[in-house]
Amino acid sequence: MTNDHWKLPPFAKQDMIFDAIPTDDRIWVPQAPNVWFRPLFLDTMGGAWFNLLRVKRSGVLSRHRHPGPVYGYVIKGHWHYLEHDFIAAPGKFLFEPPGETHTLVVDSDDEMITMFNVNGAMIYVDDAGKAIGYEDVFTKIEMCIAHYESVGLGKTFLEQYIR
Ligand code: FE
Ligand 1 centroid to 107 CA: how many Å? Predict the structure, then answer.
């Protein structure tokens, strides 16, 4: 048995492992006042991303539609969707099916952190459900690059999270 049987085959992507909750606060990318996301995995081939969402204010965050599936895991804090009865609390896992439109409301000013895996895009909608904007893995990448350059982490810092 050779010692290289574990080596990655040609064209396989590099693995990753790191602290999900960063020690360097600059890694949190501002999304809105008191709202940040922390990229974990930006999947340009699958058109998907994993990130932590961090919120430090109560109230309505956004209303959006998901054309692809979303998987979530709540780490800290409590939140809910106006359209559903459940409360998302630490330790909860959730699946949001394609076609779902919902309005995220954070229940306290205490820090909320949830990991989301979003596939495809998020389509932001108004009260009538009309599309007013979107995010996909590429808009996320652009936001991260601009932020990391502005805080001195450099424009290649993000590359470790992209496959
Ligand atoms: Fe959502």
Answer: 16
